[in-house]
Design a protein that fits this description.
Blueprint: H1 2-23, H2 27-34, H3 37-48, H4 54-68, H5 78-101, H6 106-112, H7 114-139, H8 143-169, H9 172-196, H10 201-222, H11 230-237
Helix pairs in contact: 1-2, 1-3, 1-10, 3-4, 3-10, 4-5, 5-8, 7-8, 7-9, 8-9, 9-10
Length: 238
């Protein structure tokens, strides 16, 4: 409990300092401070959660490592930094997808949530199209276009599957997992707007706030456990 409070306090301090430097138009220091948020959450998970999930741990570690690449960016080429960083993020989201999938009975979901899956698929296609329109002028006809496409697809799959998981489980753990996914996706979308449309301090602060909040929800859900559903037992028996 004592370690948990210290590390949570450290997260808040880093977040507040990052926001203050953003208000002071010192984005370099603000982004450097922001890059410590996920490593601290990773340490918090490693120290305080007894029953750890391999997939969730890999998600945290890969995401944290990608954030920390900021500090070696001046010593490597922009292309290496771009591809390495985004590949780590994609892998991180993939492991989060596996974490969600392992707690869902696929057969039950496919049988009972057909309309939900259809609506989510259409919505995801539309969002991917909108994001493509935003970034296309900057990455069209390059390999970066495909990296951005895969990144957005995996990210939106996380949001969709956590929502389906919430419909399926309907408990506090699945709610926190969905809220975490929702916050991180909104954070990413706002960050795209900040990077490609308007370098507004307000957008940067909102993105950072959602970013921190998302991993707080992820951490809280990691301390909870799922209860076995009757449908799962029936499917396994049959």
């Amino acid at each position: 409990m004592y370690k948990s409070k210290i590390l949570m306090g450290l997260v808040l301090i880093v977040y507040v300092l990052s926001v203050l430097f953003q208000f002071g138009n010192d984005s370099s220091i603000a982004n450097s401070l922001k890059s410590f948020i996920i490593p601290i959450f990773t340490l918090l998970y490693f120290v305080t959660v007894k029953k750890k999930s391999l997939f969730f741990l890999l998600f945290l570690v890969l995401y944290a490592v990608s954030d920390l690449l900021l500090f070696i960016a001046p010593y490597i080429s922009n292309k290496v930094n771009y591809y390495m960083g985004n590949s780590l993020y994609i892998l991180a989201y993939t492991f989060l997808l596996l974490e969600v999938c392992k707690s869902v009975c696929v057969l039950y979901v496919l049988k009972n949530y057909k309309i939900h899956l259809l609506v989510l698929t259409i919505l995801n296609i539309y969002i991917i199209y909108v994001l493509h329109v935003i970034v296309a002028p900057y990455v069209a006809k390059t390999n970066e276009f495909y990296v951005e496409l895969v990144y957005n697809i995996v990210m939106l799959l996380v949001l969709s599957l956590t929502l389906v998981n919430y419909f399926y489980r309907d408990n506090v753990k699945s709610l926190y997992l969905f809220l975490g996914a929702m916050c991180i996706v909104f954070s990413e979308v706002i960050w795209i707007a900040y990077g490609y449309i308007s370098a507004s301090t307000f957008l940067n602060i909102v993105s950072t706030s959602l970013y921190m909040l998302s991993f707080y929800f992820f951490y809280i859900q990691s301390k909870l456990v799922y209860e076995e559903r009757e449908e799962e037992v029936e499917i396994l028996i049959n």
